[in-house]
């Protein structure tokens, strides 16, 4: 035993140094590069209204992506989000038919989202079932209920003031959805990076057993995360329904995969334990810019999916290939 | 031993299937006429083939979300080959479809094996890439019935002993892969890798390489199914079998395959697929709108995974002598 | 130093035979650690070589190099004098090297026969596995080691001891010339251990070379012909077992003379803090009643699998008891989760540090503050400065060695990881601290630090429960000892009743 107790510094690297070397910085560089390329290839790109339209490509998905990021960091996943949108939208559409007004519709949309999230959370945390299977099941179940209710029909006739959520502008080209997206991003940033709850999310994702043994109520935290994901799906359902002014059971079909792609592209480890909200925000812009830029060049949507798929694999594969190359 | 056999998942699932058939038959006896049952089995053949491949992949703690996209891409490739070279004999077409599907599967497998990218990310990415590639190849156009050669279309529909060739292929695959899984080193390696990857290394099994072969098999079966599907329905297009990957995972889960790996059988996967196949074929017969199908299969997944987890729940170490003799 | 490693090859001159297998100046490094440094070792036909050393001395690395799990960085493996390479475990098996590993490296979902023959099953027609032949052969091997296990049984149906026998059968299913046994008797009962010794004698008679790793000196002196001592990845000494004493081996292992010294303790035993009455679990423990007082260190001794950890984890809220009463400072306590336990002042330092104790991918300060975030934060918002302050205070008290407080815990040595876990719990200012095998697998220096610290905690009035399987530690640290056997309290010992003999007798039920 030595008598001198050694002094241990708090940190060796400043937070700024860490940030510069991070995934988010790389992603931001990619976003800027795409922005520059787009502005050269299309004369329509650098137009305030066009850019404003561009944000609709990602705002609704990103709202869910923030909650999904927390869920994935905690080591779970929710593949039923797009189906929750369908169910919430169907419930709102049904309510319109019996004359419910806008405030009621909003409550119904949020309520259905929360209930669906609670159902997922119950199956995962109380029954101990793997979330990937549970939510593949509820993905069919929730959208299935929409199909039972609607078949090949559609609900329309939403009240005119309901249109504001998806079509309204707060100031000049700044849409209500963009503002909502920014507020939600900020809230999730604070939750994940500045609160005890966020710390618990990281601890659970890195080692659920160790977190439980450290006195964290793992099941409760995970349940809340499923609730939040359901709630955000409800919010997105309100925005999307308002924007489309109609509900079909196929609404938001396939979004779950785009949302997971956005989260993973944003640097969240699919195995849990790491990731950040700024990363997801930048990833949302990257996906929006790619979709929009290719759209201006008249490239069909399905081809864009190749780019998105390649991005998803590429951003993970390239650094690993590079390391192998150097070794 | 006999109790074990009695309670085995395959026996339970067979009973459930027979019960289901019984309920349907009690109101619509025509449903269980041999000809109709053969028809139902034949309809379910693609799902059985894909479920076998998926079962093997899940066994090794992976998942393959790209199977339906692989099916559609391979289907389009052989469709276009047939249009370009109508004289090419069917066995060559089949070999091409198996080989091409296997190549796509190998691509997934290589990314998982060599770069250690999580399988869900890899196959989510390749799923969109494969679909996009179909669009690029076909320019978004359909290949329609009249463009195919007669031999191309006739093969899977040819009846042998009252069952079309497609059904016989599914039976052959079940027998062949049962043998592979229980009686070959590779088959046992799939179980070992999923059951205890750490121990598998100690037994001289390369975990990554075994997963690679699982993806290759899954891809080959998806490719084969691609030809069967395209020729049976005499059509090929971008969204062919869209979302079918989830039915495949559902069939596996219902068939008792544990999503955490290491547990599952070929017969189980087949029974899971048949369960879903019977439901989808029975709905129109019993006069329920086909729109119910999605919700029912979602519910079936959730119930199946809940039952699985009850059955597989880990028992604690039994320390007390009395407790040991009591059980 | 007794002997320079290079001179070990002189041993060949002392025996008539040539070695079957030799390690020749093998080095293996991992990032930051040299696990083996220029190790040379010879294994002779018909001889048992005992490999001894502290945890982390490099014994397991040798096993992994010899069985193809690791590849050496430099140096070579030689069989009958010619160099060989084992890229995979199967290549080692094919070359006649087989091992009974320390951990059970088996497969729950496969049958016993499949476990024995996985990777080298007998083939029949069309290259398919010949199931009948496989079962027959498996039954033969199992019978030969005195195990009555049906080869058809799924492995998950077996108990721990039987699983270990399957692992031994697996090692023997390869027609090997070199058999490596890594602590093979750790999980076995006395009867099974005797059968294993008979097996070793058989293997010797068949002319096989055996590398036997063990912590138990009595068995080393009973069955070994040669010894080899490792310390910090280097071969420190080797020779014939007849030429060495237990004390000399210990001295080589730890590098200094040790009569394990435990800290002097003041005994300020105060009021009762914890009272457990008629505590039960359906399968793991029964009829547990004991009391614990302030300033007391209560030892829990027993064989591995006696239910001690299970009892402690239940008190900590991990598993639910079926019946019984827990009182903390005379008030009935309801503990349904670790969070409840921490809230009531009971904390638990688990045996499995990597999985249950620390969150290795998070930095030190976040590990320390994890259960205390309520105090360092304000209205649920983190305050990093407070966290660093708290982490600094407690890590300094434990004399933690680390580059910085935001170093990930996974980068620390086992001893320092343990200090982080203890610091984490002390920061919650608990009433009762339960330490489960607190010094298992940590170096001598950290071990002494943990012992001193335990004494200090008790002196400050904390009530300490120490689960330990090391008799010197139990005797050296405890005021009172409860011995458990098969899930029940077998004896409660203190004062003059507390001797190595009484502990062993009650633990084994003889």
Structure in words:
The complex is a heterotrimer of chains A (327), B (327) and C (510). Chain A is mainly alpha-helical and 327 residues long. Helices cover 72% and strands 2% of the residues of chain A. Chain A has 15 helices and 2 strands. In chain A, strands 1-2 form a two-stranded antiparallel ribbon. The relative contact order of chain A is 0.18. The relative contact order of chain B is 0.19. With 510 residues, chain C is an alpha/beta fold. In chain C, strands 6-7-8-3-9-10 form a 6-stranded mixed sheet, with helices on both faces. In chain C, strands 16-17-18-13-19-20 form a 6-stranded mixed sheet, with helices on both faces. In chain C, helix 5 crosses helix 6 and helix 15 packs across helix 16. Classes of the chains: A mainly alpha (327), B mainly alpha (327), C alpha/beta (510). Chains in contact: A-B, A-C, B-C.
Summary keywords:
heterotrimer, A: 327 residues, mainly alpha, two-stranded antiparallel sheet, 15 helices, 72% helix, 2% strand, globular, B: 327 residues, two-stranded antiparallel ribbon, 2 strands, disordered C terminus
